[in-house]
Amino acid sequence: MAKRAIDPRIKLRHLSCFLEVARLKSVVNAADALNISQPAASKTIQELEELLGTPLFDRSRRSLFLTPFGEVFYRYASTSLAALRQGIDAARGSHEATVVKVGALPTVSARILPGAVRQFTSEDRSARTRIITGPNAYLLSLLRTGDVDLVIGRMAEPEAMLGFSFEHLYSERVVMAVRPGHPLLGERQFNLGMIETYQTLMPTPDSVIRRLVDRMLLSHGVTNLRDEVETVSNAFGRSYVRQTDAVWLISEGVVAEDIADGQLALLPVDTGETMGPVGLTTRTDTTQTLAALSLMQAARDVAARLR
Fold first, then answer.
1. I need a labelling partner for 75 at 20 to 30 A (CA). Which of 36, 142, 244, 271 fits?
2. What is the CA radius of gyration of the chain?
3. Residue 200, beta-bridge partner list
4. Angle formed by the axes of helices 12-24 and 68-91, nearest 10°
5. d(CA 276, CA 168)
6. Mean pLDDT for each consecutive 10-residue tract of the chain (307 residues)?
7. 248 dihedral zone (left: phi>0; alpha: psi -120 to 50; beta)
8. 0.85 exceeded by the pTM?
9. Helices (H) then strands (E): counts for the chain
10. Distance CA 15, CA 10 (A)
11. Closest Cα to residue 283, out of 187, 179, 128, 147?
């Protein structure tokens, strides 16, 4: 039986626009990212929905969310576009330097990635590394569309891992970092509820560790945090905590060097319940380049020294 032909009216621009709108949940933001006008982006999505004969987005809320059909189409469209990009990169391989594109969460950017990149570049000086940081959901969307080759960070929720493979490297916990000399460090009988009288820096709602932090605080009866600031900026968090009495709830790897150097201190609280796996996330339907495999091995080597 002959395979059904793809509707020739569906163009690459339709898929690219659809994937950007799905990633950013906004036609306006997608238009900016694609450097086209908002009406052009809206028209492109409308054309695609007409060609497919069904809505791709739920427009009943402020942000756009994929319909069930849109979710299915997204997985296949992203896979197709990623495969096309990989094919183009492979075809150009003999003419251009290999670039390994890595999506990295803040914790590995500070803890294992510097050593991994140093080892990788010393072994293969013809390859280049491109590091992209951001929240986990953003990095996984780039991985799904082939804009990064792999993601290094905490394992995402199961529903977000469809089409991905995770390799565990090490585990780490969330800690509570403060400036040296912070009043809470002098408490002889410290308990977690004492942080309620101090400003807190919290991971953003879309971060992998936020759910773990919320559950830990709730289990200890901490429900009234003061002047909460949500941030994923390491630079801001590090600077703000050093200048104030704020308590920073953050992955241990982000502040490990600050603690070792005496620039920050940890509150004496058991946060073992926030322990979670950190590792390599890759696509199950693509084959990594030799350069990417080399960088992955370098990350394994550095992580092994942490365990």
1. 36
2. 22
3. 247
4. 120
5. 10
6. 69 89 88 90 93 90 86 82 72 64 89 91 82 87 88 87 90 95 93 94 89 93 90 92 96 92 95 93 84 91 86
7. beta
8. no
9. 11, 12
10. 8
11. 147
